Amino acid sequence: AQSVSQHNHHVILSEAASLELGCNYSYGGTVNLFWYVQYPGQHLQLLLKYFSGDPLVKGIKGFEAEFIKSKFSFNLRKPSVQWSDTAEYFCAVNARETGNQFYFGTGTSLTVIP
Amino acid sequence: NAGVTQTPKFRVLKTGQSMTLLCAQDMNHEYMYWYRQDPGMGLRLIHYSVGEGTTAKGEVPDGYNVSRLKKQNFLLGLESAAPSQTSVYFCASTRTWGTEAFFGQGTRLTVV
């Protein structure tokens, strides 16, 4: 079974629209959570990460994500998207109970229309 | 500072041929990973290593072998390539458990 779930497979938005991408994971205990972005033809780059502390984390390019432990969720948000945000977004989890493995979701393809 | 470098960037193989993909990192990271990326399936972990001389299986290890003889290098081998191994392969490294992963540029492999 998929241990990291991204429910939105393909999202199309107009510029200036707000974005929220869902991510749920199935591990208990200590987790480290990440969002990565992959621009067309490029490798994955880190957007933001959560290790501990404030559950609302801010990343690069105006992205933020909220860790809700009770819901096993780590949703990505951006108040106003730009055309340059067109990319694929991956949620990733590193959980103590899985040892050293780094699990990724299936990704969400975001297309922003100018 | 090169980060994570993968060699080669592109390769076409015939079914049954063998090849080795090289991943090199210059950040003195302990952990290294090999993933394959396929449409609609995200990144799936093939093998990983938590230090020089160690390797472990990930989600989809069949048909692949790995070696970590030097801390900075992580090799992925295909002994007898199959069309199902057509994919984009990414190498990643992390300083230790739970830290940010740095990715290479990827290797696009086609098996015909």
Gist of the model:
The complex is a heterodimer of chains A (114) and B (112). Chain A has strands at 4-5, 10-14, 19-21, 24-25, 31-38, 45-50, 56-58, 64-68, 73-78, 87-95, 102-104, 108-113.
Could you explain the architecture of this structure?
The complex is a heterodimer of chains A (114) and B (112). Chain A is 0% helix and 51% strand. Chain A starts with a strand and ends with a strand. Chain A is globular and about 45 Å long. Chain A is mainly beta and 114 residues long. Chain A has strands at residues 4-5, 10-14, 19-21, 24-25, 31-38, 45-50, 56-58, 64-68, 73-78, 87-95, 102-104, 108-113. In chain A, strands 2, 5, 6, 10, 11 and 12 form a six-stranded mixed sheet that branches. Chain A has a four-stranded antiparallel sheet with strand order 3-9-8-7, with no helix packed on it. Chain A has a two-stranded antiparallel ribbon with strand order 1-4. In chain B, a hairpin with a 7-residue loop joins β9 and β10 (102-103). Chain B is mainly beta. In chain B, strands 2, 4, 5, 6, 9, 10 and 11 form a seven-stranded mixed sheet that branches. The model of chain B has no long low-confidence stretch (mean pLDDT 94). Chain B has strands at residues 4-7, 10-13, 19-25, 31-38, 42-49, 56-57, 64-67, 73-78, 87-94, 102-103, 107-111.
- The string of secondary-structure elements of chain A, in order, is EEEEEEEEEEEE
- Tell how many strands the DSSP assignment of chain A holds: 12
Radius of gyration of chain B: 13 Å
Oligomer status? heterodimer
What does the average pLDDT of chain B come to?
94
Which range does the strand content of chain B fall in? over 45%
Q: How many helices of chain A? A: 0
Structural class of chain A: mainly beta
Q: Indicate the overall shape of chain B.
A: globular
Features:
heterodimer, A: 114 residues, mainly beta, six-stranded mixed β-sheet, four-stranded antiparallel β-sheet, 12 strands, globular, B: 112 residues, seven-stranded mixed β-sheet, 52% strand
